[in-house]
Amino acid sequence: MLGKDPELQHIKWILPNAPTRAITSNYGLEMPGWFDIYTFSFKESGEEDRDGMLESAGILETLVKDEIATGVDASRIVLGGFSQGGAMSLLTGLTSSFRLGGLVVLSGWLPIRNEIKKRLASHAPSLPIFMGHGASDPLVPCRIAKISAEYLSGELGIASQEKIGEPGLTFKEYPGLVHSASPEELEDVAVFLRRVIPASQ
After folding, report:
1. Alpha carbon of 74 to those of 6, 62, 67, 98: distances in Å?
2. Distance separating alpha carbons of residues 173 and 137, to the nearest angstrom
């Protein structure tokens, strides 16, 4: 849908694949994953695969560096993803040495909250961030995304923003949506992209 949008034809899409790794919560079976998930309970005190997350953030940061090396301005780069990919986009974008054009987080959450403050980039509060989440998501409950959004605003100083694509955090909940994306949500993503990386500046 997004790739066919006539107003987004200027965008180069890079879709990296997560490495294959054993996922504990999936009985140790190997599958694509940016990090291990020990449990889907998402408790406040739950253990996270910190090392796996930071390793993957390094991979994504390298992709950003590679694009910048080709002449793309960092402000024209948006990181985005779904579920684990959304979590990694948020972590990478908030801690990157580059001030990116924006972040898109679908059905995701803020990982390693207990240490994100000390890793936060100085430009993070000025980033446009779009978070979308299904209200009926059974895998990553919407309450987890809401807690993440509240932490971003209350603890990290990223202002809540009603207008999609403006500096700050826009959080939208989609009634009836499970752990997937909907046409309405994807249209909101398109609006975001049109605003943060327009065809001409």
Report:
1. 23, 12, 8, 6
2. 10
- The letter for the amino acid at 127 is L
Give the list of residues 6+ apart from residue 101 with CB closer than 8 angstroms, or none: 74, 75, 76, 77, 78, 128, 196, 197
Closest CA to 185 of 138, 130, 136, 143: 130
What would the two tokens of residue 25 be? 């919560």
Q: Which residues are catalytic?
A: 83, 137, 179
Q: How many CB atoms lie within 10 A of CB 13?
A: 7
Which of 129, 13, 28, 133 has the alpha carbon at shortest distance from 63?
13
DSSP 27: T
| Burial class of residue 47 (count of CB atoms within 10 Å of its CB; 0-12, 13-18, 19+) | exposed
Residue (of 46, 39, 169) closest to 112 by Cα position: 46
Q: What is the pLDDT of residues 128-156, one digit of tens each?
A: 999 999 999 999 999 999 999 999 999 99
* 68-110 tens-digit pLDDT: 999 999 999 999 999 999 999 999 999 999 999 999 999 999 9
Q: For the residues 153-160, what does the mean pLDDT come to?
A: 95
